Amino acid sequence: MSAEPIAARPQPGAVDPGRTPPIVDHGPRGQKVVALTFDADMTPSMLAALKSGQVKSYANLAILDILEERRVPATFFVTGMWAERYPDVLERIAAQDRNEIANHTYRHAAYKPNCYTLEQLPRTEMTADARRTFEVLAPFGGNQTHYFRFPGLCHDAAALTALAPLGVTVVDGDVVSGDPFATAAAPIVRAVLDRVQPGSIVVMHITEANAAFTDEALVPILEGLAQRGLRPVKLSELLASVP
Ligand SMILES: [Zn+2]
User: Fold this and answer.
1) Kind and range of the H or E run holding 40
2) How far is the centre of ligand 1, averaged over its atoms, from the C-alpha of 232 (Å)?
3) In the chain, what percentage of residues exceed pLDDT 70?
4) Of the candidates 89, 108, 199, which has an alpha carbon nearest to the alpha carbon of residue 153?
C-alpha cells in the first residue's frame, strides 16, 4: 500500500478551482497595516532591448537592498519571463521569509482589449499563460501564493472566466504609485502618501529601466507610512480576514 499523500497546504489566495476569481483591491480598513507590492514586468520587446544592450537592467536591486536593510515585508508579482531572465534576483526574493511571490502572467500581454499599449493575449491562451507562470515560479520556493495580478490591472468577465480553473485571487490595488516612466521620485512619493490608508495595497514596480525612481521614492514612502502609523505586512497577512 502506498503512503497517504501529504495534503498540500493551500497557498495564500487559493480558492476553489472553477470559481470565478474574487477580486481584491484593498484589505480591511480597520487595521493600520498596508501591503507593498512590486510588479516584475517582462515582455518579448523588453527582452530584446536587454539583448541588444539598449537597456541595461529591468531589475532594481536597490529596492531589495532597502527592504532587506529595513526588514520590510513585500509581495512581488512576477512574470514568467522576468523570472527566467533574473533567476538569481528571484532567488534572493524567495530567500526572505518576509516576501511573498505572486503571478503577473508569463509575458505581460493584456488579458483585456485596449489595455494601454500592451499586446493582446488571445482568449484561448489565457489559462495556459497563467498556468505556465505558476510552473515557472514554483521551483523558486519561498512564500509562493495564488495571488494573480493582470498586466495594467486590465480585466473583464472573459479574463476572469479564463482564470477560474486555476483557483486564484485577483489582486488590483487602491494606491497606484505611477512609478512606471516617472521622471522623478517626488511624484511617486506624493501619489502614494496622498492616497494610502489602512488596508491599502500599493502598486509599484521593480523594473529599473521602466521605473527608474522607485528605489529613490521608497525610503520617503516608508518614512511617511511610519509617520502615519501604517505598518507594511505581507499581502496574505493584509488579506487574512477577507473572505
Ligand atoms: Zn505589470
Assistant:
1) strand 33-40
2) 21
3) 96
4) 108
76 C-alpha to ligand 1 centroid (Å): 11
Domain boundaries of the chain, sorted by first residue: 23-238
Question: What is the Å distance from ligand 1's center to 62 Cα?
Answer: 19
pLDDT, tens digit (0-9, with 9 covering 90-100), for 71-113: 999 999 999 999 999 999 999 999 999 999 999 999 999 999 9
- The answer to whether 26 touches 200, Cβ cutoff 8 Å, is yes
What is d(CA 239, CA 232) in angstroms, rounded to the nearest whole number?
Answer: 12
* 34 φ, ψ (degrees, to nearest 5): -140, 160
Confidence (pLDDT) at 181: 84
Q: Compute the distance from residue 5 Cα to the ligand 1 centre, in Å.
A: 37
Ligand 1 center to residue 215 CA distance, Å?
17
Q: Which whole number is the average pLDDT over 143-172? A: 98
Answer whether 213's CB lies under 8 Å from 188's CB.
yes
CATH fold of 23-238 reads: TIM Barrel (3.20.20)
CA 210–ligand 1 middle distance (angstroms): 11
